[in-house]
Write a structure and sequence with these properties.
alpha/beta, Enolase-like, domain 1, 3-stranded antiparallel sheet, 13 helices, globular, binds [(2S)-5-oxo-2,5-dihydrofuran-2-yl]acetic acid, binds magnesium ion
Length: 373
């Protein structure tokens, strides 16, 4: 029986400042742009979701402006009038109508889950089969661009017990300079922290073969996306030769990518991101592929704000295996909040609410203040 229909879906572009410039190989962030999705249902329930990327078109094929335009023109009109409580039917409609567009689909799927959870009085984790943990350890990215500042930032995080896993964003500088930066940070932190790197595809295979050995010899635990997603045979060779585990991030743009990476043996760890798979349920399909293939899991982020972060978290807490923990720190990189219930970080972990839906409500006045006109 249909209890509620989808009446309207609004997509709002929201610009929020970051606490400091965040330097990635392909882009330096001075702010983050969220696409906030409001899904209004005929029973008065509103679901919220988020479709967020990094650096306009620098990271992926969908920009915030493109996400909003495609939702407004294609995805929202296709869903209006459908049952709000049949998420399978709604997502089937979107997958039939639109190729790709996983960021936009992820935001809508999150909003559908939030609405259904609020309707039934259940947290999203329970709609996804039930949580097996209440909190997730969270890594922090050191990306100030300065070695001494990064060490200072890491020391502060250890002292306040917020993070003890650090991911370093490298790839933009000459190889020897990047390696010296990483080794210096690991030497300063020693056994007190897990240090990992993300190259965002910036090396070629010849550089990566050498660099992975140097990094492993210097105590680096995990190497994320060292070479291009396009170079599949190179990824397979690197996965066989690197003494430190290789994690796929950009290589996974869909659940189908996850399957073919697993079949080829191109990585031993997968970064799970709701945006790149098409939603919290889609990312769990990628997780099942990984688990069947013996591939370890990591809960990734597109540096979403609180809504996207909790949509990810509700999916990740249902997983039996999350060997490499998570990096769900997005809200902590922003100076402003647009929800009334800022996510709770303490003792190195994010604590996931047990309130209905995602556990969040929009702060209307702050949303109005930061929404792009
Ligand atoms: C990426 O490539 O993983 C995640 C954390 C961070 O600092 O950047 C992102 C994107
Ligand atoms: Mg990455």
């Amino acid at each position: 029986m249909i209890h509620a229909l989808i009446e309207r879906i609004d997509a709002l572009i929201v610009d929020l400042p970051t606490i400091r410039p965040h330097k990635l190989a392909m882009h330096t962030m001075q702010q983050q742009t969220l696409v906030v999705i409001r899904l209004i249902c005929s029973d008065g329930v509103e679901g919220i979701g988020e479709a967020t990327t990094i650096g306009g078109l620098a990271y992926g094929y969908e920009s915030p402006e493109g996400i909003k335009a495609n939702i407004d023109a294609h995805l929202a009109p296709a869903l209006v009038g459908m049952a709000a409580d049949n998420i399978n039917a709604a997502m089937l409609r979107l997958d039939t109508l639109a190729k790709g567009n996983t960021f936009a689909k992820s935001g809508i799927e999150s909003a559908l889950l939030d609405a259904q959870g609020k309707r039934l009085g259940l947290p999203v984790s329970e709609l996804l089969g039930g949580r097996v943990r209440d909190s997730l350890e969270v890594a922090w990215t050191l990306a100030s661009g300065n070695t001494a500042q990064d060490v200072q930032e890491a020391e502060h995080m250890l002292e306040i017990r917020r993070h003890r896993i650090f991911k370093l964003k490298i790839g933009a500088n000459p190889l020897q300079q990047d390696l010296a930066h990483v080794v210096a940070i690991k030497r300063a932190l020693g056994e007190r922290a897990s240090v990992r790197v993300d190259v965002n595809q910036y090396w070629n295979e010849s550089q990566a073969i050498h660099a992975c050995k140097v990094l492993a010899d210097n105590g680096i635990d995990l190497i994320e996306q060292p070479i291009s997603r396009i170079n599949r045979s190179g990824q397979v060779r690197l996965n066989q030769r690197s003494p430190a585990p290789i994690m796929a991030d950009e290589s996974i743009e869909s659940v189908e990518d996850a399957f073919s990476l697993a079949a080829d043996g191109a990585a031993s760890v997968f970064a799970l991101k709701i945006a790149k798979n098409g939603g919290p349920r889609a990312v769990l399909r990628t997780a099942q592929i990984a688990q069947a293939a013996g591939i370890a899991l990591y809960g990734g982020t597109m540096l979403e704000g609180s809504i996207g972060t909790l949509a990810s978290a509700h999916a990740f807490i249902t997983l039996r295996q999350l060997t490499w923990s998570t990096e769900l720190f997005g809200p902590l990189l922003l100076t402003e909040e647009i929800v009334n219930e800022p996510p709770q970080y303490r003792d190195f972990a994010l604590h996931i609410p047990r309130t209905p839906g995602l556990g969040l409500t929009l702060d209307e006045s702050r949303l109005a203040r930061f929404a792009r006109r």
